[in-house]
Structures are given as C-alpha cells and as structure tokens.
Q: What sequence folds into this?
C-alpha cells in the first residue's frame, strides 16, 4: 500500500520507492498493533547493513543491487526521518513529508522527478491530509 501513496520516479531512483516501503511498512504494522516494536527494530538493525555501499559502489542512483535498492533506500529514509525529527524537535517525521507529497497529488499514477517529491515533502501540505479526495 505504501507504493500507492508515492509518485513514480525515474528508474534510476527506484531505490526511493522500494526504500520507503521497506522502511515504512514495518512501522505501520507496529502502529496497527500487529508487529512488536522490539521485533521491528531488531529486524531493522539486522537488515539495514545490506544497504551500505560496498567497494566500487557508485551511489543509489547507479548501483542497482537488491541490497542497495531496498535497504539502501530504507537507510536513506531512516536518516531522513531522524533529520526531520531533529529539526522539528520531534514534532514531525518522515510520515509528515510523505503525507505532504500525497496531498500534493504525488501518488503511483503520477510520474514525478525525484527532486519534486523531495521538495514537496519539505513543505507543509496546503490542506490537511484527511480532507483529500481520491482525485486529489
């Protein structure tokens, strides 16, 4: 479901689409009460190193291995989440950026440059997330 709430980006940026899903889905399961938080964090700690660059790595946009795509993208999302929380004194997190992107019409049916999604995600939504219809 996470994939539906983020715009399609260029193939070279596929890591952001997979990374968001890899990072956000277990958090959503914890929030829904169907996954233990300890299990989520232990799995994250165990699996995130698969996304670290290896010798010869050319960055997330170029190195399209499974680990870099899914776990490198998830690591990017974790670091973005931490940065947002630090800058807002824990008042906002990555979920607020993702809601802003969706509120601006960024969903799987739309093709956006990655730069647009990142820019839109840093702005507060023009209207509350819960008031958006399916047609935006």
A:
């Amino acid at each position: 479901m996470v994939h539906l709430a983020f715009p399609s980006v260029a193939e070279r940026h596929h890591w952001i689409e997979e990374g968001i899903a890899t990072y956000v889905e277990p958090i959503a399961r914890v929030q829904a009460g169907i996954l233990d938080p300890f299990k989520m964090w232990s799995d994250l700690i165990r699996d995130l190193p698969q996304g670290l660059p290896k010798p010869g790595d050319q960055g997330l946009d170029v190195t399209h291995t499974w680990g870099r795509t899914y776990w490198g993208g998830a690591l990017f999302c974790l670091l973005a989440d931490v940065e947002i929380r630090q800058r807002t004194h824990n008042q906002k997190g990555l979920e607020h950026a993702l809601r802003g992107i969706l509120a601006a019409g960024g969903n799987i049916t739309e093709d956006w440059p990655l730069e647009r999604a990142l820019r839109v995600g840093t702005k507060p939504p023009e209207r509350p997330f819960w008031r958006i219809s399916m047609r935006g």
In short: The longest helix spans residues 66-87. Residues 46 and 68 are 15 Å apart (CA to CA). Residues 2-131 form one domain.
